[in-house]
Amino acid sequence: MPRLAFRPPLFNSASPWATTKTDLQDLYNSPFTGAVTTRTSLLAGFPHDPSIHQHTLFDSPTTSLNTYGYSPHPLKFYLDTVKSIITDTGKPQTKPFIISITGTPEEVAEAVATVSDVAKVGYNLLVEVNLSCPNIPDKPPPAYSLPELRAYLDLLSKRKEGVPIGLKTPPYTYDAQFRVLLSALKAYPSLVSFITSTNTLGSSLHLSSQPLLAVSGDRRVVYQPTLSSPARTGIGGLGGASIHWLSLGNVSTIRQMLDQVQELKGIVVIGVGGVGDRDGWQRMLSVGAEGVGVATALGKNGVGVFAKISSED
């Protein structure tokens, strides 16, 4: 399979701001995006509950926290939407759609087969398997576990042909975690076409700016979590500028790691995390990203952020 290339190497990553047809249409119409990524979906959709699945954006610098699961729309919604967007233009497709999916290994294998069937009739599609969401109770991100990663890759390896497959990884913070990813990829050297690094950083908490109450007799104060969450703690996934340097380190490490194994050199790295200006974009490219995804800055500034990133002097 040819090495992936994105022109320009700038687009959105899977996020709440890629949920609806309008979201995806605007991203596709932008001349400053080289691809469009859908919000992560399941075969049957995710049971979204706005009382516990939330996000907030805050400054100094621009950062986000979310307690979301996945899209409430099923995979079929996104495939139908992509076909509609392209058909409505009356012109050939101008950029790929990255269909972000998740689920059990069996569900993911079925989803990839479904996307492949659509691609066979002439659509330029990639599949991103999201194994990195930190917000699902009692289901830690599979990309931290070698047995779980292998369970996904083993089922996916049994397909004979189809769309390019990528893995979306969580932030790794020590060497053994990177080695888990490398070991899994080496066992299936021709399967994965790209790595999207990174998803949000879990176990993060944002508190309200004003204390809820002061504890009499000492200096302690009690603050209210800004968000709700499935566990009612307000703890969720941190994104945006606050994780940029961690994400940059992940992209650099993964690129160098892949380049040390001949069979894995062709895997492309998509860098995600805290890119909101041209400097951040260029930093990601400089450490080996061949595509750069934007989420928090898109949520804050809208699709115009891609023109801003591309045209800054």
Automatic annotation (TrEMBL):
Residues 4-312 form the Dihydroorotate dehydrogenase catalytic domain. Its cofactor is FMN. GO terms for biological process: 'de novo' pyrimidine nucleobase biosynthetic process; 'de novo' UMP biosynthetic process. GO terms for cellular component: cytoplasm. Keywords: Flavoprotein, FMN, Oxidoreductase, Pyrimidine biosynthesis. Pfam families: DHO_dh. Pathway: Pyrimidine metabolism; UMP biosynthesis via de novo pathway. The keyword Nuclease does not apply. The keyword Flavoprotein applies. Gene3D superfamilies: Aldolase class I, Dihydroorotate Dehydrogenase A, chain A, domain 2. GO terms for molecular function: dihydroorotate dehydrogenase activity. SUPFAM superfamilies: FMN-linked oxidoreductases. InterPro entries: Aldolase_TIM (IPR013785), DHO_dehydrogenase (IPR050074), Dihydro_DH_chainA_dom2 (IPR023359), Dihydroorotate_DH_1_2 (IPR012135), Dihydroorotate_DH_cat (IPR005720). This is Dihydroorotate oxidase.
